[in-house]
């Protein structure tokens, strides 16, 4: 049971998954907000039913799953609709993230939350780890990964917290333009630091 939670965040294309997996390789439980968000809108879920009632069945794909791309387009430029959707999903996602983190078998848990800063979720974690890269690297990586245009990536970047906002809130930063060998060493150093912090935190709770 992990009482100490490290929030891992970063902008699109920063390489959060790579860093998270390096911690997982050390036996640390990962709590992934994106995975939980997908689970919340699985077929026949109450959240999906509410989304269908609001937007119609055309929001589904041919397999009856939520078409996340269509939903993003529907709410991206509409503050009212985005507020409605966030109000529906965010409380459920937060509840399940905390539940999974508390049930972690490792000494601390890594909570992977892309929008940790944007959605004001920093109070859920004990420490904030930001994965940081140059904005041009974010753009080129995301274009290659998602087969999208520069303009589409830039629109996403503009909608996210700024690089400076994330860095200002960070307790730790990984510059993710290193070699895998360097990243592995950096993660090992942070891992040892988090183990120590988790043990000290546990002592204060007893």
Automatic annotation (TrEMBL):
<dbReference type="GO" id="GO:0004140">
    <property type="term" value="F:dephospho-CoA kinase activity"/>
</dbReference>
<dbReference type="GO" id="GO:0015937">
    <property type="term" value="P:coenzyme A biosynthetic process"/>
</dbReference>
<comment type="similarity">
    <text>Belongs to the CoaE family.</text>
</comment>
<dbReference type="InterPro" id="IPR027417">
    <property type="entry name" value="P-loop_NTPase"/>
</dbReference>
<feature type="binding site">
    <location>
        <begin position="13"/>
        <end position="18"/>
    </location>
    <ligand>
        <name>ATP</name>
    </ligand>
</feature>
<comment type="function">
    <text>Catalyzes the phosphorylation of the 3'-hydroxyl group of dephosphocoenzyme A to form coenzyme A.</text>
</comment>
<keyword id="KW-0963">Cytoplasm</keyword>
<protein>
    <recommendedName>
        <fullName>Dephospho-CoA kinase</fullName>
        <ecNumber>2.7.1.24</ecNumber>
    </recommendedName>
</protein>
<keyword id="KW-0173">Coenzyme A biosynthesis</keyword>
<dbReference type="GO" id="GO:0005737">
    <property type="term" value="C:cytoplasm"/>
</dbReference>
<keyword id="KW-0808">Transferase</keyword>
<dbReference type="Pfam" id="PF01121">
    <property type="entry name" value="CoaE"/>
</dbReference>
<dbReference type="GO" id="GO:0005524">
    <property type="term" value="F:ATP binding"/>
</dbReference>
<keyword id="KW-0418">Kinase</keyword>
<keyword id="KW-0067">ATP-binding</keyword>
<dbReference type="InterPro" id="IPR001977">
    <property type="entry name" value="Depp_CoAkinase"/>
</dbReference>
<comment type="pathway">
    <text>Cofactor biosynthesis; coenzyme A biosynthesis; CoA from (R)-pantothenate: step 5/5.</text>
</comment>
<keyword id="KW-0547">Nucleotide-binding</keyword>
């Amino acid at each position: 049971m992990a009482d100490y939670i490290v929030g891992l965040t970063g902008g699109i294309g920063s390489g959060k998954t790579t860093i998270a997996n390096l911690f997982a390789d050390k036996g640390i439980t990962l709590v992934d907000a994106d995975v939980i968000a997908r689970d919340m809108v699985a077929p026949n879920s109450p959240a999906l039913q509410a989304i269908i009632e609001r937007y119609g069945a055309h929001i589904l794909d041919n397999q009856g799953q939520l078409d996340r791309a269509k939903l993003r387009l529907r709410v991206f430029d509409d503050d009212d609709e985005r507020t409605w959707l966030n109000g529906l999903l965010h409380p459920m996602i937060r509840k399940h993230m905390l539940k999974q983190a508390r049930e972690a078998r490792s000494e601390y848990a890594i909570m992977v939350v892309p929008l940790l800063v944007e959605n004001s979720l920093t109070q859920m974690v004990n420490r904030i780890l930001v994965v940081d890269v140059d904005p041009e690297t974010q753009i080129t990586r995301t274009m290659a990964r998602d087969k999208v245009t520069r303009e589409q990536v830039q629109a996403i970047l503009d909608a996210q917290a700024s690089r400076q906002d994330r860095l200002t809130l960070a307790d730790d930063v990984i510059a993710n333009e290193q070699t895998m060998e360097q990243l592995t060493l950096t993660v090992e150093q942070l891992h040892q630091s988090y183990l120590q912090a988790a043990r000290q935190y546990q002592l204060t709770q007893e």
